[in-house]
Amino acid sequence: MKRLLVTLASVVLGIAVVVGIGLVASVSGAEPDAIVAKQVGTKSTPKGELPHYEVHLDVYPNSSAAVPPPSAGTPINAELLSGQPFYKPSTSIQVPANSVVTIHFTQYDSGGQIYNPYFAKVHGSMDGTMTWNGKQVSEIKSSEVGHTFTVHQFPESTQPYLFLSVPLPMNPANAKTDSNGYPVDPQKISVTFITGEAGTYVWNCEFPCGDMYQEFGGPMQQRGWMAGTFEVVA
Ligand SMILES: [Cu+2]
Q1: Cβ-count burial of 190 within 10 angstroms (0-12 exposed, 13-18 middle, 19+ buried)?
Q2: 102 pLDDT exceeds 50?
Q3: Is 30 in a helix, a strand, or coil?
Q4: How many Å lie between the centroid of ligand 1 and the Cα of residue 109?
């Protein structure tokens, strides 16, 4: 009987922790202004010559004197999330429909083993690869992941299918760093994909880079930090 009670208590506690993290995460859905993809020309694709757009995103391990934390969130979030990683300049991204889009990432964080090796592979890019420091690759070592950029739809979505997942390699622990603690030679990743019709999607990081529940709490559930919106606009 005692054992049953202990089991029950830990299940209840477990649920409370998950619900609690969810509540903290939903306190604020505010994000910095959306990044709007810029046209850089046209590109030939399996679907013909399409307008080509670019987006630039940086990933930082923490804020510093040189890189202020995201403005999203309430003071309580800022307090809870200080020292946590985030995407810059925003996590809200807008790209045009029926176009080719290239996202360029500059990744300054360390990393480690990702729980699910599926997310160490590139999914949904135009040719199944990404460019990593000048090389074409379709996956990286699952033990060397810094973050992922994973775009997907809402479970109940009736919008056009969109799934894109890019692993961003970690910087080694002994990487040379600048006075703010960021690697002087960060990881550079580019991925190119084709958009379909308009739709609103979400994205998040699938590397356990946060804290609390299995490192999936804190910034992982916070728009403006490791999650955001991805809009394909007509
Ligand atoms: Cu992350």
Answers
A1: middle
A2: yes
A3: coil
A4: 9
pLDDT over threshold 60, residue 131: yes
pLDDT digits 0-9 by tens, 53-98: 999 999 999 999 999 888 755 666 667 777 889 999 999 999 999 9
Predicted local confidence at residue 73, as pLDDT: 56
Is residue 225 a contact partner of residue 84, using CB atoms and an 8 Å limit? yes
The CATH number linked to 130 is 2.60.40.420
Ligand 1 mean position, distance from CA 220 (Å):
6
Q: What spacing in Å lies between the alpha carbon of 90 and ligand 1's midpoint?
A: 14
What distance in angstroms lies between residue 3's CA and the mean position of ligand 1's atoms? 38
Question: Which contiguous run of DSSP H or E holds residue 163?
Answer: none
Residues facing residue 166 across a β-bridge: 149
Question: How far is the centre of ligand 1, averaged over its atoms, from the C-alpha of 229 (Å)?
Answer: 15
- The total number of structural domains that make up the chain: 1
pLDDT of 193 strictly over 60: yes
Q: Return the amino acid letter for 44.
A: S
Ligand 1 center to 2 CA (angstroms): 40
Q: CA-CA distance, 91 to 72, in Å (whole number)?
A: 10
pTM: 0.84
Domain that holds residue 125: 2-233
Q: How far is the CA of 111 from the centre of ligand 1 (A)?
A: 9
CA of 198 to the centre of ligand 1 (A): 26
